[in-house]
Amino acid sequence: MNPQKFQAVRGMNDILPDETPAWAFLEETLRRWLNQYGYREVRSPVLEPTGLFIRSIGEVTDIVEKEMYSFVDELNGESLTLRPEATASCVRLAVQHNLLYAGPQRLWYLGPMFRHERPQKGRYRQFHQCGAEALGFAGPDIDAELIVMTARLWGMLGLKDVALEINTIGSLECREQHRQKLITYFEGHLEVLDEDARRRLYSNPLRILDSKNPALKSLIESAPRLIDQLDDASALHFESLRSLLEAAGLQYRINPGLVRGLDYYNATVFEWVTPLLGAQSTLCGGGRYDGLVEQLGGKPTQACGFALGLERLLALLQETRVAAIPVVGPEVYVVHQGEGAQQAAFLIADALRDEGFSVVLHCGGGNFKSQLKRADGCQAAFALIIGEDEVRQQLVSIKPLRGQGAQQTVSLQQAIQLLK
Ligand code: ATP
Ligand code: MG
Hints:
The protein is α+β, with helices and mostly antiparallel strands. It has helices at residues 20-36, 50-57, 62-67, 87-96, 141-157, 172-187, 195-200, 217-221, 232-247, 292-295, 310-320, 341-354, 368-377, 388-393, 412-419; strands spanning 40-41, 47-49, 69-72, 79-82, 105-114, 126-135, 163-168, 253-254, 266-273, 282-288, 303-309, 332-336, 359-361, 382-386, 396-400, 408-410. Helices cover 37% and strands 20% of the residues. Adenosine-5'-triphosphate is lined by residues 85, 115, 117, 122-124, 127, 129, 261, 280, 282-285, 307-309, 311-312.
């Protein structure tokens, strides 16, 4: 058979050994951060029943209309979808396992999401999100907690130039009134609307406000604003949230055009944006979804959450972080040559691992010079050299590879002390 070379699926990235340290740094920081606030991790499958996303995200949304990887499982005829986001999965999980019987839940997740988008910088077909979901909380205290905790994360990561935008999209009832006004308004400007907007005019006019088409920008900016016709409860919720944010010393901008591209949101919505990543400026988005748990078969449960994109965070880390994330090599690289040296090297490498060191044992032979070149190339801190002399005298030679210090020939016990 002829050999054949394969490429990863378009828009889906391999993460290479030189890149994983930055990912690990970010993931460890996220874990530490979420722990600090008492959020508990959940892991759900990447495949879910297609209906879960249609019901929750909404039929007339970018995601459901054109971005989902859906297929029929030919083995049993089930319609399945690779999750495009995980709020719906999280709620499904909480309802299925009755988590809410034990009271309100602070949950988080991290993992790959899948959307059939046009791949470009900061926009991929497989990407990673970390999200927090607070189920069973009426807010606005929890809304504020979620926003303030994200601000702390930017601090922990050393990120600058991240700005908060908030808005309220009110209750279902006031959204319905607003919807009528929007339809009338956009009907008066049909000639300006693009194809997507015309299609959504009657099914989901709020989505037009979320359009990224620059030709619609000024039309959208002058559209009737929901924030001007809020019901009393939503207005009060928003006011209280604002005071909590101000008390926490957070700066924010109210963006009346911020509506978020998913149907389940109500009341508070927010995004963290940065001017440093070009068109893909949103790092984190979230809001309340008070109706979703009930809609997915649970008891009425108020809720709020957010998701942040890891690829965009990493891109911003690269742009702004002063201290680069170091590529860490092993602590010790063991080189060996000559009679009995290989066996001794195996035993010594393991003895060092027993002491807790990370040890790479040279495999594949070669002379000392070429082995030491490998040791240096993998960023090892020390080389441990075992030749025929060392074997005979039951000693090892230790050579610092980074920075100062001469090679010394010592007992294994002394070498361990030196390494410590
Ligand atoms: P955008 O407006 O950029 O399309 P969105 O509103 O579709 O974002 P959400 O569904 O709210 O995004 O997802 C939350 C976060 O996940 C985004 O703020 C972004 O950081 C990240 N994200 C969303 N889609 C992608 C993607 N295709 N590739 C990489 N990251 C993404
Ligand atoms: Mg999107």
